[in-house]
Amino acid sequence: MFDASAERNAVTSPVDPERAPDPAAVRRHPVLFRAVRRRRNPRLRRSDITVTDERAVRRAVKAASLGNTMEWFGFGIYAYLAGTIGRVFFPSGNETAPLLSSFATFAVAFLVRPLGGMVFGPRPTSPPRSSAAPPRWSSPP
C-alpha cells in the first residue's frame, strides 16, 4: 500500500533526487528522518532576525511615497497637457502628429528612467566630506 504522507515527509537529497529515501524506511524511522529534515531546514532564531528602527522605516516610507507621488503627478500633468504641448512644440498640418509626438516624448522619458537609475543609482547623493575640506598644504587665512 502506498502512503502519501510518508512520501511527502520523506527527506530528499537536493543534490541527487534519485537518492530519495525509501518510503518504508521513512515509516519505520520517522524520528530519524524528522531530525534530518530539521537539520537541513533549521528553525528561525532571534539572531536571524534584523530589527530596524521603526521611526526610520516610517520616515523612509514617507519619503519614498512623497517622491513617487511627485513624480507621477508630473507625469500626469504632462499626459493631461499632451495635446497643448503637441500643438505648441510640434506644429504640423495634421492634428494627430503633434499629439503622437508629444506622447512619444512622454514614452521616452518614461522608458529611460531605469537607465538613469542604473547610471546614477550607485553614485553617492553628496560628495564625501573629505573633498569639501581644504587641502592640508594650504596656509590658514
Automatic annotation (TrEMBL):
<keyword id="KW-0812">Transmembrane</keyword>
<keyword id="KW-0769">Symport</keyword>
<dbReference type="InterPro" id="IPR036259">
    <property type="entry name" value="MFS_trans_sf"/>
</dbReference>
<feature type="transmembrane region" description="Helical">
    <location>
        <begin position="102"/>
        <end position="121"/>
    </location>
</feature>
<keyword id="KW-0813">Transport</keyword>
<feature type="compositionally biased region" description="Low complexity">
    <location>
        <begin position="128"/>
        <end position="141"/>
    </location>
</feature>
<keyword id="KW-0472">Membrane</keyword>
<keyword id="KW-1133">Transmembrane helix</keyword>
<feature type="region of interest" description="Disordered">
    <location>
        <begin position="1"/>
        <end position="22"/>
    </location>
</feature>
<protein>
    <recommendedName>
        <fullName>Proline/betaine transporter</fullName>
    </recommendedName>
</protein>
<dbReference type="InterPro" id="IPR051084">
    <property type="entry name" value="H+-coupled_symporters"/>
</dbReference>
<keyword id="KW-1003">Cell membrane</keyword>
<feature type="transmembrane region" description="Helical">
    <location>
        <begin position="72"/>
        <end position="90"/>
    </location>
</feature>
<feature type="region of interest" description="Disordered">
    <location>
        <begin position="121"/>
        <end position="141"/>
    </location>
</feature>
